[in-house]
Amino acid sequence: MNYEEESLAEVVAGLDHLAQAPTDVLAGLVARRGVCLWINAATDEPEWTGDARADRALVAPLCASCPVRRECLEWEFRTTGGAKLDEWGLLDEVEHEAAHLAWLLRRRGGLQ
């Protein structure tokens, strides 16, 4: 999944198959298979700039190669109340908020 090539509606629709997955199962998948949790902070972690746009560009290749991107986004939407976690993920804050709202609507049956 490449968020840059998909519309936010497509990104959110891509989470539908995870609607019935238990949150603890999603958390386990992300913990076991998430690229961001497997980097070695001493050698692999990007050198953060403090600028959100630049830092997001630093982590984009990691997130783009992650096998559990959808599971991670589903887990984040469920557990953070829509708050964005750090710079991980490929959505900026505005996109993240819009995707979270669309996700909420889909889950409540208001948008298909």
Automatic annotation (TrEMBL):
InterPro entries associated with the record: 4FE4S_WBL
- Domain spans labelled 4Fe-4S Wbl-type: 35-98
Name of the featured protein: WhiB family transcriptional regulator
